[in-house]
Amino acid sequence: MTVHNIATLEQFKETIAKNPVVLLDAFATWCGPCKAIAPQIARWAEDPTFKDKTYFAKFDVDAVPDLAQELGIRAMPTFIVFKDGEKVDEFLGANPPALLNLLKKYNPEETETTENSENKSETAE
User: Fold this and answer.
1) Catalytic residue positions?
2) Which pLDDT does position 108 carry in this prediction?
3) Closest listed residue to residue 6, CA positions, set 82, 98, 102
4) Ranges of the chain with pLDDT below 70
5) Regarding beta strands 3-5 and 55-60, do their DSSP bridges make them parallel or antiparallel, or are they unpaired?
6) What confidence score (pLDDT) does residue 122 get?
7) Phi and psi dihedrals of 74, rounded to 5?
């Protein structure tokens, strides 16, 4: 999968309605930290751990100001996780390890694996 560019507020609403888990990157073209973390996000979008499970999207806060305002974006980069159309988490800053933890937290396969291992340990006792 790739990182999809969101160009309108309507496209954003369709995206979070159609995809179970969405990681949205609010960035600006002039933002140094945004440019620094963008290649890592692109790699995660292609990683089998997240590919086809988490929908990676981004939007330029200057190009889509109505979306930035609706989401209350005050700093870039801001990453927001939507699950089943609802905002469930938010992270500010270009911190790859922390962002990776956020991705793992909402990755359906990771959650399922964690639940299964907990169930196995309960039955083993």
Assistant:
1) 31, 34
2) 66
3) 82
4) 1, 108-125
5) parallel
6) 43
7) -120, -15
